Structures are given as C-alpha cells and as structure tokens.
Amino acid sequence: MAAVTVPPKLLTLLIVHKLGRVLLGRKKRGFGEGYYNGFGGKVEPGETIEEAAIREMREEAGVDPVGLECRGLLTFHFDDQERPWEVHVYHAADIRGEPCETDEMAPVWFAVDDIPFDRMWADDPHWYPIFLQGKKFKGTFHFQNTHTMTSHAVQVL
Ligand SMILES: CNc1ncnc2c1ncn2[C@@H]1O[C@H](COP(=O)(O)OP(=O)(O)OP(=O)(O)O)[C@@H](O)[C@H]1O
C-alpha cells in the first residue's frame, strides 16, 4: 500500500530582535501556556504565511512588526497530534507601537544573554543562537506527551 503523507499544520513564529534584546511573550492560554515564546499562530485560509505572522503579532501584542525576514523552518512531530506542525520563523528588526498585554500574551523584553530557556519550549535553545546570528536554518523535532523532546536535528542553511 502506498504511504499516506499527511499535510502539515502551518504556523508562524515571530521574534522581534532589536538593540541586543528580543521581545517575547508569556503565553496566557492554549497551546504552550506558561511558556515564553515569540508571537504567532495558525495560518488561516486565504492568507499568506507572512500575512499570518503580521496578524498574529498585532492580535497578541498590539504592534506592527517592521523589516520581516523568514529565517527558519521548524517541523514538529508530536506523538499526540495527528499531523506534523510546520512553523515558519520570522525575524523582525523593529515594531511600530508599544507592546501591550492581551488575553493571549504578556510581552517582555529580554537581553539576548538572558533569554529564559528554562521557561520555554525544549527545542528553542537548539535554534535561537543560529537565529540571533542572522543565519537561516531548518530543524526537525520529535515530542512525546506534548512537552518532552525526544529527538532534535538542526541544520544551518
Ligand atoms: C513544540 N515546540 C515549539 N517551539 C516553539 N514554538 C512553538 C512550538 N510549538 C508551537 N509553537 C508556537 O506556539 C504558537 C502556538 O499558537 P496557537 O496559540 O496554537 O495558535 P493560534 O493563536 O492560532 O491559536 P488559537 O486561535 O488560540 O487556537 C505558535 O506561534 C507556534 O509557532
């Protein structure tokens, strides 16, 4: 029988990186609640991935990202999800407006040497250093019971 390929779920992740700091948000609800992360979510029908990245940043922190660059592609295989997740990671050089807390996220600036990896997804330490160096990358990760990372492979492109 031919192998069935399940199309991945598309998501965005946007990290603002300016003057030696990154803007992250503490996720207040839903998937990844309690973790610090960039801003993002599911790509909706009819929008491009970049449009989704901009929309999610507005919805979650009330600001418009400026100078977007797609730097990475992360693929997550969860043993408790039907489809793999494909996360498109964007770098933003700046924002227009002041970040504000929303129902979903509480935004906080962190110095790049002080990123709270112990309160973030387990894959993050494997690709943030590459991202922060301005390089492009691709990564594949497996997770068990949502949160336990069981394998990781990251490639600088
Ligand atoms: C497993 N390792 C991971 N490492 C780093 N980041 C991860 C991640 N897994 C998911 N993410 C990000 O977490 C957000 C979830 O988004 P999520 O809240 O589900 O989306 P969205 O806002 O569309 O949902 P609702 O409309 O509230 O259902 C989204 O940015 C996505 O890229």
UniProtKB/TrEMBL annotation:
| Biological process (GO), any one | DNA protection
Where is this protein localized, as stated in its record? Cytoplasm; Nucleus
GO terms for MF: 8-oxo-7,8-dihydroguanosine triphosphate pyrophosphatase activity; dATP diphosphatase activity; metal ion binding; RNA binding
Q: Which Enzyme Commission number(s) are on file for it?
A: 3.6.1.56
* Matches recorded under InterPro entries: 8ODP, Nudix_hydrolase, NUDIX_hydrolase-like_dom_sf, NUDIX_hydrolase_CS, NUDIX_hydrolase_dom
Catalysis: reaction(s): O(6)-methyl-dGTP + H2O = O(6)-methyl-dGMP + diphosphate + H(+); 8-oxo-dGTP + H2O = 8-oxo-dGMP + diphosphate + H(+); N(6)-methyl-dATP + H2O = N(6)-methyl-dAMP + diphosphate + H(+); 2-oxo-dATP + H2O = 2-oxo-dAMP + diphosphate + H(+)
Q: What is this protein called?
A: Oxidized purine nucleoside triphosphate hydrolase
Name the source organism: Klebsormidium nitens
Lineage of producing organism: Eukaryota, Viridiplantae, Streptophyta, Klebsormidiophyceae, Klebsormidiales
